[in-house]
Amino acid sequence: MALGFFAIALFLFLTLDSDVAPSSTASASAASSEGVEVQITYGTVLKLMHEKTKFRLHSHDVPYGSGSGQQSVTGFPNVDDSNSYWIVRPQLGTSAKQGDAIKSGTIIRLQHMRTRKWLHSHLHASPISGNLEVSCFGGESESDTGDHWRLLIEGSGKTWKQDQKIRLQHVDTVGYLHSHDKKYSRIAGGQQEVCGVREKRADNIWLAAEGVYLPVTESK
Predict the structure, then answer these.
(1) What's the rounded Cα separation, in Å, for the pair 44 and 169?
(2) Exposed (0-12), middle (13-18) or buried (19+): which is 7, by Cβ within 10 Å?
(3) Residue of 95, 87, 106 whose CA lies nearest to 168
(4) How far apart are CA 25 and CA 34, in angstroms?
(5) 198 vs 31, 172, 175, 201, 208, CA distance in Å?
(6) Within a 10 A sphere around the Cβ of 104, how many other Cβ atoms?
(7) Rounded to an integer, what distance in angstroms lies between the CA atom of residue 33 and that of residue 116?
(8) Predicted pLDDT of residue 187
(9) Which residues in the chain come in under a pLDDT of 70?
(10) What is the pLDDT of residue 205?
(11) How many whole angstroms separate alpha carbon 106 and alpha carbon 24?
(12) Which of 45, 72, 99, 148 lies 20 to 30 A from 139 at CA?
């Protein structure tokens, strides 16, 4: 069974230019509709949906025209876009491995699948609202603590599951990953701003949506 899931994930990585959602092949959505709880593990490829607006966390090889000038991160309105896939990775310097379950309070990294850069934040001002800028930065061999996000599960859940409300708090700036209905009008027309804010708000809530979810690795 684990081999089958790995094969699906490998197929996904080899077809990065395809806009066909992994969920149409074999995703958690089918299992979820059957009432099966789906856990998010390291190595999972997923889309994060902003609960309030239903936009997906998104990036593309377009730099910000202000602030850091790094690769921009936005909220994207359409479901079927391959630039909205992220790979769940452990923080730097940990022994965590692919297939491990992820507990609330754990520090994780999110790697943009298409460009291989990391979801990042810092003290630069975001373009529209002037909050903390969220960008994509680095690469396979370049990552730092600016890529570290603490997973905070809402409610009583202890390990991250699909359809569970979560917050992601940036470790360095303590800002929560945030979005709202403030939209870009030019280069990313129709896409909405993603930024960091230091207060807990309703606009901080995200859910794991479409993706390829690897099974939990059993301890031996």
Answers:
(1) 20
(2) exposed
(3) 106
(4) 16
(5) 35, 11, 4, 9, 22
(6) 18
(7) 31
(8) 65
(9) 1-35, 187-188, 219-220
(10) 98
(11) 30
(12) 99
